[in-house]
Amino acid sequence: MRKQTDSARKQRLALVPCPYQGHINPILQLGKILQSRGFSITILHTIYNSPNPQAHPDFSFFPIPEGLSKSDISSGDLAHIVTTINDNCKVSFQHLMEQQESQEDDIACIIWDEYMYFSDAVATNLNIPSIIFRTSSAATFLGRCALLQLHARGLIPFQDSILHEMVPELYPLRYKDLPLPICSEFESSVPLIVDSHKIRNASAIIWNTVDCIEQSCLMQIKKEHCPVPIFPIGPMHMIAPPNSVSLLKEGTSCIPWLDKQSLNSVIYVSLGTMVSIGEKEVAEMAWGLANSKQPFLWVIRPGSICGSDWIEKLPQGFKVGVRERGCIVKWAPQKEVLAHKAVGGFWSHCGWNSTLESICEGVPMICNPHFGDQSVNARYVSHEWRVGLELENLERGEIERAITKLILDDEGKDIRARAKDLKEKVKLCTGEGGSSQSHLNELVDLIMSF
Ligand code: UDX
């Protein structure tokens, strides 16, 4: 199947995203990066949550029918959805790849999100090299390895008595910070974690992280878990040329509102693309924000408050107060918001993309993790890089104190200073001659050598 490379033809890379915003964004950014190094890019994506081809007219897009039913999708069971995609996509993906190889440029390599592991079998069948793309932190990978071991020893679910103890060899993670999936039954997620960790026939791993924040975790992974080269070439959004890759419409109405606020005064609140919250929690958030007396920009995704379409369940008195000091939007251009001079803090669920974006803008964080890798990232933000505070309880008094400390008080001064320092360190890594750029050069050399 593999043809001789014809130097007159441009080398093409096939990228396979996992169909969630937190995975699609970085893989499209990776596509932009590799395109800027001379490769043509083809995105092979599921029909479910497909990316918008119009946002990338210079990429080729091909849908793979993944056969998810309405009930699969509405189940919200991520392990089931991802497993079904892997079960259903292999044959059509192979067919599409064969067509590509006959019609387009040579496919030099298939780069697949770690959860789209059906791609590796097809790459092997067609004798095309493949590379894995990991979109969560290196610390999360180690956390998941620990969970698999603890599961094998019958220790999950954890006894309450050990939740606050440190996990041996995984400082600063406590048992309660390990990345347990969204569904309460860990058992049902084990096969997916095992499958996403396998290297199979891949030649290398691209990681959306950066040496200066995760070097020791990356070294541990290289030593204990990984016989192939690892290329930490992130944060992808810093290396990639700017472009909108959002699945949701980015409301820009908040920017003129931010323009009117004073320097470093606004707390930006967003819990990402998947977290849902109950009415009681929303009331605590609302009153915590109101009582802090700081201006706030709050992203409330339609449907993210349980049992309501948008903001109907916000407390009535609060809605009146919002007009004075707050701005609520359905979606925001997050990177632009974090870069805005009025933003002084980010109250985040600590998804990995949000964490990286906040670090890159030097914005200190209030960490409010909900599930999965978010608790690992939150712990690293608050206890390793120490550029944020962890919210232990979603309770209005604690929220008010956290916002005041992060944005105003002397007590938060060191956190704010460290956030600025970390921003500079990452800038050095992503700038010319920095570690991410060097790893990118090595990656390009590897692909060219296939
Ligand atoms: C999910 C999981 O929750 C997370 O733990 C995992 O690391 C990735 O997948 P998600 O909720 O998508 O995370 O959060 P995150 O990884 O932070 O990605 C969200 C992306 O959406 C970010 O790139 C952010 O800039 C963007 N976003 C979010 C917006 O552009 N506007 C918004 O209003 C909110």
UniProtKB/TrEMBL annotation:
Keyword Zinc tagged: no
Q: What Gene Ontology molecular function terms does this protein carry?
A: quercetin 3-O-glucosyltransferase activity; quercetin 7-O-glucosyltransferase activity
Q: What domain of life does the native source organism fall in?
A: Eukaryota
| Pfam families linked to this entry | UDPGT
Query: What keywords does the record list, in alphabetical order?
Result: Glycosyltransferase, Transferase
Keyword hit for Glycosyltransferase? yes
What does the similarity note say? Belongs to the UDP-glycosyltransferase family.
Q: What name goes with this protein?
A: UDP-glucose iridoid glucosyltransferase
| Taxonomic classification | Eukaryota, Viridiplantae, Streptophyta, Embryophyta, Tracheophyta
Gene name?
A: LOC107410904
